[in-house]
Amino acid sequence: MEAGSLRHGSPDAAETPQLRGTNQSGMRDQNERLVLSLVRQSGALAKSDIARMTGLSAQTVSVIMRELEVEGLLLRQEPIRGKIGQPSIPMALNPEGAFFIGLKIGRRSAELVLIDFLGRTRAMLQNSYGYPTPQDTIEFVKSGIAQMRAGLTREQDKRIAGLGVAMPFELWNWVDTAGAPREIMDAWRNRDIRADLQALFSFPVYLQNDATSACGAELVFGDMGALRDFVYFYIGAFAGGGVVLNGRLYSGPTGNAGALGSMPVPGPGGRPTQLIDVASIAVLEKALNARGIEAAYLWTSPEEWQDLGPDMGPDLDNWITTASEALAYAIVASASVIDFESAVIDGWMPASIRARLVQAVQSAIGRIDVEGLRIPSVREGTVGIHARAMGGASLPLSERFLIGSTAPSRGV
Question: Where are the stretches annotated Disordered (predicted)?
């Protein structure tokens, strides 16, 4: 299971996750994925722990963990000595075992991130723009990945397991909201960006909707504890989301499940509109621009909104009020279809603004008639502003080393 040799093809995200191993021959790949998934979720584990958790025989577990250690994916930890018998030797993920690159193509910015096998960020690059173009995006990726690889050793570079691309599907359909020239956005219609990028690199390239990828980042890298069923909202230039069922990302047959930005919600005057038209940061930018306030910092300095002066205060307050009311209706509507444990909200904004938004959503839900429904708890996401790029990086990680937490698509 070397970083460059594992076969592709993760299980479909709608299936029940495989929590048990099998001692039958020919199942090495599945069992190795299972062991790596458990160690990622639980931390360092001894062979006896793995055997107990999976139902695999002690001999099978011993063989698997020895192979994973030889391949550089697991590291021995200090022995734990008990009063009886041989000491227990926990095994942990090797940070140098594999590396993954994530690319977020957004409507106002692009990001590249390089992470190690533990999900720790090793390098990150950002490019802000008025609107994205295919050629500029490809050039950013070429130069950015070259810069990242220059900082790796030869052995580390060999262990790059893939590039995951997180971008809005049918980007060209948002031309009016994005404020971009139609001919520029139409250029995306006839481009297979995954194929264009695959032609540049020897490692595999995966593609998934950007908000769904952010949801995948929360699932793989976030701190959700035992949470296994949740609806997820990512508030970026446009609002979007994802769905997690049975601890796995559900993307649907076309990869568009959890297209929460298109969910109908009450708009001005009570008329129905889409969540994307109310809860998106582009709406806040438009309000600021209408008062002559330069709002480019919304995209270039997402951690520092509150440090950029009081001018945005009234518009920010109004946006939080209207966005929270729309999100509240979206959460209630989602709960009427699936009995989610929680609704998770994250976005391209400072943590303090995210906390205000979540609190406002909780209050707004209290003003809606929810009789007959069990409303999920509303909580903040734990990955933050880089969730979409991190979600892109999670695609090759999940596809090649885990029991299918995410299910990458091969095209738009």
Answer: 1-27
